[in-house]
Design goal:
This protein is an alpha+beta fold. It is 25% helix and 28% strand. A 5-stranded antiparallel β-sheet has the order 6-7-12-10-11. Strands 1-2-5-3 form a 4-stranded mixed β-sheet. Helix 4 crosses helix 5. Bound molecules: uridine-diphosphate-2(N-acetylglucosaminyl) butyric acid. The site of uridine-diphosphate-2(N-acetylglucosaminyl) butyric acid has 18 residues, from strand 13 and helix 7.
Length: 337
């Protein structure tokens, strides 16, 4: 374990922003993690996972702790179920592929999501009708203040759409060190009703899809819409899909009867932020090296040398114009520092 100074984080965030960390260390064991926390050279602490859901708008005058814990372990199994524990630093997609290769079902719809296992619960990652919470069993953490280890059950995590206790009550208090998933071995509860998945499987003449078939469909859909961060810097969806009350929704519908929407409950309606941003005329636009993806307006991109401040400015311009035009407030999904 070596603490570095003034380290560039360009290769540690998928937006490819070249901010510097005042102090930086990558920890590979829980012992190293605890040692780093007790030796911390700066009061300000910054926990870094896969760097796939954040925007750095300047240098970090902080101690950046890169969670690089590795390992996958099968804890127990029954005839039809298996409990698999993955350490926080495992790459999410590689872990999903490991599960599919073993025939463990439940994570296939979450293929190709950037980031690491340990940060996935924080925002309850979700795609194509499935969320992390659907297979989450528990996670282990280290409490930053006391260095004590604590397990969180699913209930304690208080999962919601792109949300959990780690973004609210417990924010900044714990470091997730591993996550345990409860997956299926035989009777898989596959979710293929999402339009594009159905279409992809039909195109390939697949009637009873395997886990691998579903994963391949998801990968193809994501690759057709979402930019690969290794090629074009981005952080996935920059904004959350807004959920509005009936009154706001009725008013919106009067002005935009053609807009897609999803009824979350009789009083709550989710509107795709991508549609709103496209309606506001931003899709495919480029301002210097900051831009809005051509195929999915919800994704902001860095064409090479955009600064975090430029991307943030663009996000705020989008937010303002969408509000003026549609009356709907869209909120960033990425964490901004
Ligand atoms: N739409 C547009 N224009 C656009 C983009 C979308 O009109 O530029 C419309 C589409 O036509 C469709 C609707 O918006 O009617 C929904 O689009 P899509 O299915 O692409 O999904 P999304 O709501 O834009 C969400 C997640 C994605 C996830 C997909 C698939 C959020 C914030 N985003 O996007 O998650 O992959 O559904 O399940 O909930 C991420 O979080 O980083 C992410 C990529």
């Amino acid at each position: 374990m070596r603490i570095e100074e003034n380290k560039s984080l360009k290769n540690y965030n998928t937006f490819g922003i070249g901010s510097n960390a005042r102090y930086f260390v990558s920890v590979e064991t829980i012992e190293e993690l605890k040692r780093a926390l007790s030796e911390k050279p700066s009061e300000e602490l910054f926990i870094l996972g896969g760097g796939s859901n954040m925007l750095l708008t300047g240098d970090l005058d902080a101690f950046v702790l890169h969670i690089n814990l590795k390992g996958i372990e099968i804890l127990k199994a029954t005839d039809n179920e298996v409990w698999v524990k993955a350490m926080a630093g495992e790459n999410w997609h590689a872990f999903v592929q490991y599960c599919i290769a073993k025939g463990f079902g439940g994570l296939e719809n979450l293929s190709l999501i950037p980031g690491n296992v340990g940060t996935a619960p924080i925002q309850n990652i979700g795609a194509y009708g499935v969320e992390l919470k659907d297979t989450f069993e528990s996670c282990n953490t280290v409490e930053i203040e006391t260095l004590k280890e604590r397990e969180f059950t699913k209930e304690e995590c208080a999962f919601d759409y792109r949300n959990s206790i780690f973004k609210n009550k417990a924010k900044g208090e714990y470091i997730i060190t591993s996550v345990t998933f409860r997956l299926t071995k035989k009777e898989h509860k596959t979710s293929i009703s999402y339009g594009d998945i159905k279409k992809n499987l039909a195109e390939r003449n697949i009637e009873t899809p395997t886990l691998k078939d579903i994963s391949e469909a998801v990968i193809a859909i994501r690759q057709s819409k979402l930019p690969d961060p290794k090629v074009l810097g981005n952080s996935g969806s920059f904004f959350k899909n807004p959920i509005v009350d009936s009154e706001t929704f009725q008013e919106f519908r009067r002005n935009f009867p053609e807009a897609p929407f999803y009824e979350v409950s009789p009083t709550d309606f989710k509107i795709p932020a991508g549609w709103l941003i496209e309606k506001a005329g931003f899709k495919g636009q480029r301002f210097g090296d900051a831009g809005i993806h051509k195929k999915q307006a919800l994704v902001l991109v860095n064409y090479g040398n955009a600064t975090g401040k430029e991307i943030w400015q663009l996000a705020m311009d989008i937010q303002k114009k969408v509000k003026e035009l549609t009356g709907i407030f869209i909120e960033p999904e990425v964490n901004v520092f």
